[in-house]
Amino acid sequence: MPNDDEVFAVVTQHLGGNHVRVRCADGETRLGRIPGRMKYRNWINEDDVVLVEPWSWQDEKANIEWRYSSEDAEQLRAEGHIQ
């Protein structure tokens, strides 16, 4: 579950390299950055549910903190956390 400064998001577009476009649960569309610790271990594709932490100095960008499996994403949708 997200902390106070984190939000759920759905990946809408893979921009190449370590950047993706995400649609956040708070209604914003942000540029997400995949950190190096996740880059080659967790493949992030379109329509994946992720947990992001928006940057405090640039709200239109965010770091991806976690990628949820498809089973976890379905459970989050069933509980009403994401759409």
Automatic annotation (TrEMBL):
<keyword id="KW-0648">Protein biosynthesis</keyword>
<dbReference type="InterPro" id="IPR018104">
    <property type="entry name" value="TIF_eIF-1A_CS"/>
</dbReference>
<comment type="function">
    <text>Seems to be required for maximal rate of protein biosynthesis. Enhances ribosome dissociation into subunits and stabilizes the binding of the initiator Met-tRNA(I) to 40 S ribosomal subunits.</text>
</comment>
<dbReference type="InterPro" id="IPR001253">
    <property type="entry name" value="TIF_eIF-1A"/>
</dbReference>
<keyword id="KW-0396">Initiation factor</keyword>
<dbReference type="InterPro" id="IPR006196">
    <property type="entry name" value="RNA-binding_domain_S1_IF1"/>
</dbReference>
<dbReference type="InterPro" id="IPR012340">
    <property type="entry name" value="NA-bd_OB-fold"/>
</dbReference>
<feature type="domain" description="S1-like">
    <location>
        <begin position="1"/>
        <end position="69"/>
    </location>
</feature>
<dbReference type="Pfam" id="PF01176">
    <property type="entry name" value="eIF-1a"/>
</dbReference>
<comment type="similarity">
    <text>Belongs to the eIF-1A family.</text>
</comment>
<dbReference type="GO" id="GO:0003723">
    <property type="term" value="F:RNA binding"/>
</dbReference>
<dbReference type="GO" id="GO:0003743">
    <property type="term" value="F:translation initiation factor activity"/>
</dbReference>
<protein>
    <recommendedName>
        <fullName>Translation initiation factor 1A</fullName>
    </recommendedName>
</protein>
